[in-house]
Automatic annotation (TrEMBL):
Annotated organism of origin: Jeotgalicoccus coquinae
Record InterPro entries: PhnH-like_sp (IPR038058), Phosphonate_metab_PhnH (IPR008772)
Molecular function GO terms recorded: alpha-D-ribose 1-methylphosphonate 5-triphosphate synthase activity
EC numbers: 2.7.8.37
UniProt xrefs under Gene3D superfamilies: Bacterial phosphonate metabolism protein PhnH (3.40.50.11310)
Alphabetized UniProt keyword annotations: Transferase
Domain of life: Bacteria
GO biological process: organic phosphonate metabolic process
Gene expressing this chain: phnH
Protein name listed in UniProt: Alpha-D-ribose 1-methylphosphonate 5-triphosphate synthase subunit PhnH
Length: 186
C-alpha cells in the first residue's frame, strides 16, 4: 500500500536531484488527487515542501484550500510576507518578483520561492543557464516569457539575496532554477 508519505518521499528525492542540477528536468510520475487546475507536479512539489510552519500565497482559491488541508500550511493574503508563492504563468505579476522576501545578509534563507505552473517545459523560449551545479552551460526551453526571467535575474543579482524558482508544467515536468543560477535568453 502506497501512502502520501511514500509519494512525498519520492518527490523529495526528485526535488533534491533537480535543485542540485539546475536546468535538469524531472518528471513527477507520482499520482495525487488534484482538485485544482494546477499540474500534479505543482501540487506534489508544494505538498512535499510545505508544513504547518510555512505561509504561502496563491490567487487560486481551490489551490489555497487544497494546500491548507493537505499540508497544514498557512494561506497568506499578503504575497510580501509569504514563504512560497504559487501561480500559473498567465497569472504572474511583477510584484511577485519585486515585493517578496529576498532574505537579508545575515539570513539569506528568509526568502520566497515561486512555484510557477507553465504550459510547457521543453518548448518555448530557450534559456542558457550557468552557475553552481552546471559544468559549462545548460540550455532549456520554457514557455515562460523572457521578461519574467529578466526580472528574476534582476532580483537575484545581489547573491546570496534573491528568490528561487520551481517550474512545473502540464506534463508533470519540474525544473528548479535557484538564485545562484544565471539564466539568459539564448
Amino acid at each position: 500500500m502506497k501512502t502520501i508519505v511514500h509519494t512525498t518521499q519520492q518527490v523529495y528525492r526528485q526535488l533534491i536531484n533537480a535543485s542540485s542540477r539546475p536546468g535538469h528536468t524531472e518528471n513527477i510520475s507520482e499520482e495525487v488527487k488534484n482538485y485544482s487546475d494546477f499540474s500534479d507536479a505543482a501540487l506534489l512539489a508544494a505538498m512535499t515542501l510545505f508544513d504547518n510552519e510555512i505561509s504561502f500565497f496563491s490567487k487560486d482559491k481551490t489551490m489555497r484550500k487544497e494546500l491548507k488541508v493537505l499540508t497544514g500550511g498557512i494561506p497568506n493574503k499578503d504575497h510580501t510576507t509569504a514563504d512560497f508563492i504559487i501561480s500559473k504563468a498567465a497569472d504572474l505579476k511583477k510584484k511577485y518578483f519585486r515585493e517578496v522576501m529576498k532574505g537579508i545578509l545575515i539570513s539569506p534563507e528568509k526568502s520566497a520561492t515561486l512555484i510557477i505552473d507553465l504550459n510547457s517545459i521543453g518548448e518555448g523560449t530557450e534559456y542558457s543557464l550557468t552557475g553552481p551545479g552546471i559544468k559549462d552551460e545548460t540550455n532549456i526551453k520554457l514557455s515562460l516569457d523572457s521578461s519574467w526571467m529578466e526580472l528574476r535575474n534582476e532580483v537575484c543579482k545581489e547573491f546570496p539575496l534573491g528568490i528561487d524558482l520551481v517550474l512545473t508544467d502540464k506534463q508533470n515536468n519540474l525544473v528548479i532554477i535557484p538564485r545562484t543560477t544565471k539564466a539568459e535568453v539564448k
